[in-house]
Amino acid sequence: MSWREAADLIGCTRHAIAQLIEQGHLHQRQVNRAASLSRASVEAATHHYATQLDKAAQARASREQEHLERTTPPDDGEVWLDVTTAALVLGVTPNAVRQRINNERLPATRRGRRWWLRRVDVERASAAAAFHARADTSD
């Protein structure tokens, strides 16, 4: 069986056929013509290759799920805003929001590498800033 036929049967590339030969999953036959593979080894490698693909897909799905859990807002029924959105509501830069979080002037929750703020808290801070701005101009 040729490499191309083996790749079609297994459902992989010719490069993967070379790797399967190196790993010992495919056996080359000694014949007078060019590069022939044992049909039995190709059929056995088909199962092995499918198993490898399944494991890789499961690992990828697991990593994606972990990433979502680390980067999504808490799921407690509240409306959560990221730092950029909170900065837009407050009329400041994202760095100013992070400074307020670090100075504990604005409550936030960290999930992975992201900060999440309750919309209620951001709106309260925005209202307080508007009140102080109005009080400063009325003096």
TrEMBL record:
Q: Domain of life, per the record? A: Bacteria
* One Pfam short name: HTH_17
Q: Where is this region: Disordered?
A: 53-78
Bias (Basic and acidic residues) occurs at 61-73
Query: Helix-turn-helix domain: from which residue to which, for each copy?
Result: 80-124
What protein name does the entry list? Helix-turn-helix domain-containing protein
Species in which this protein is naturally found? Nocardioides gansuensis
